[in-house]
């Protein structure tokens, strides 16, 4: 490689352009380091967010809705630091950005960019435009004062509701105008690529009515379903002229509203991306993943799991459809992760509860190759920041997220890369399961909860366990976790019986019966260390009581590099 570079350089210097080439080189040296635009890449069905040319994991938090003001940003950064985040998600308000038609005020964008850089934190900016939680509350006042022009959804009774119409051409034009101005500004104001992604709108959809019943919407609802929607939903209509009701029955209105909103948002995203091709995503207020209620029991028209295909077809400039997860139930939480982790959709959790009860699901998201994770509302605008130097009870609401990020933060680049390469698995404790097995070629890693020396695995009353295992080489693994026990055994058909003994704490080495012979696991070396500047730094070798019964993780951050062998 070096030879090729030198050869090219020599060739350039030998030509008549030698002086120009030398000048260009000198000029390049004077330029600050160029940062490529962040992008989402896919390989073998796995995704990565590329930042500065390598996979990146967003360890993020989202600010409260009204925190992105010069007056309140000082209450954001101390929380971000206490959380060990590398990214902050925060809104850009249309009403602030375009106070008068066509006049754009970039002070808020510039302020948050500058302050984030000063704290070495990346940003995901949330465009609070036409939709915010299904309503048009962030439209500038000059739009709110003209409801006929920037119209609302009309319900079945012919009344306007608190939600913008996806058929309002004037609103769409105005949103495209403002969003492209925002992206144009970002393109010039952010050569450092502080901003990694942009969320287009917020929790689109409508509460209280299934769709728009305005005359224009009625006409379209009675017309044939467009061919791309039929294809996306994998249905063949009974006849070519089949309308929405004929084709989709009870789901017709929700599908129609999703189609209308996805088309609207898709046009905004395409216009913004044409100016500055940052990764774009939309977030969803979810429907119940286990027992989805009938249409009307959830926000209609947003990217809920039943209409993801419609959104993919109508808004191709949107890279990711992302779930806002406020469900504490393990089965529901994991099902949501599965619904949004698809071959055509990278998993990203842009909002989730920050509770101690759900913090372990960060590992479940990592186990599904999540490119980012972001608990909501973690700034000091509602809870005062502790005085400098004081370890404060005020911080307790940050603790569950801080614990995760403190552990994973220093090795974030390795985690993102190993995940992209398909070498990483991660799990969290689930009710009803005290043991989980992760398969890695010749080795199985087994994770147990509540186990220990002389104690069989058992379900915890309040599960908090989590574990992550990544294969570094054929017989070497990176292992970390919290409140969990991890061990390895050779992959074989009859390994269960003897492994059971280690799981019950009797001290028997995990073994497998392979081709009629018992093959036993031995630890070659269990190295404890920490990540510094992106590399594992050895601290000590664990042995004796620390490994004779497998590897035990408490709530204190601990990272192990484990080499295994057989005898
Ligand atoms: C979901 C929304 O997307 C957020 O902006 C926020 O309103 C939370 N719900 C709840 O506080």
Provide structural commentary.
The strands form 5 sheets. Strands 4-5-6-9-10-11-12-13 form an 8-stranded parallel β-barrel, surrounded by 5 helices. Strands 14, 17, 18, 20, 21, 22 and 24 form a 7-stranded antiparallel β-sheet that branches. The longest helix is centred in the middle third of the chain and has 24 residues, at 252-275. The chain contains 17 helices and 24 strands. A hairpin with a 2-residue loop joins strand 17 and strand 18 (476-482). 46% of the residues are buried. With 567 residues, the protein is α/β, with parallel strands linked by helices. (2R,3S,4R,5S)-2-(hydroxymethyl)piperidine-3,4,5-triol binds at residues 65, 133, 202-203, 283, 324, 351, 376.
Give the CA-based shape. Answer: globular
Number of DSSP E strands: 24
The major β-sheet equals: 8 strands, parallel, barrel
User: Which percent range fits the helix content?
Assistant: 25-40%
Strand content: 25-35%
Bound heterogens, unique: (2R,3S,4R,5S)-2-(hydroxymethyl)piperidine-3,4,5-triol
Provide the low-confidence segments as ranges: 1-28
Whole-number average pLDDT?
91
What distance lies between the first and last C-alpha atoms, to the nearest angstrom?
43 Å
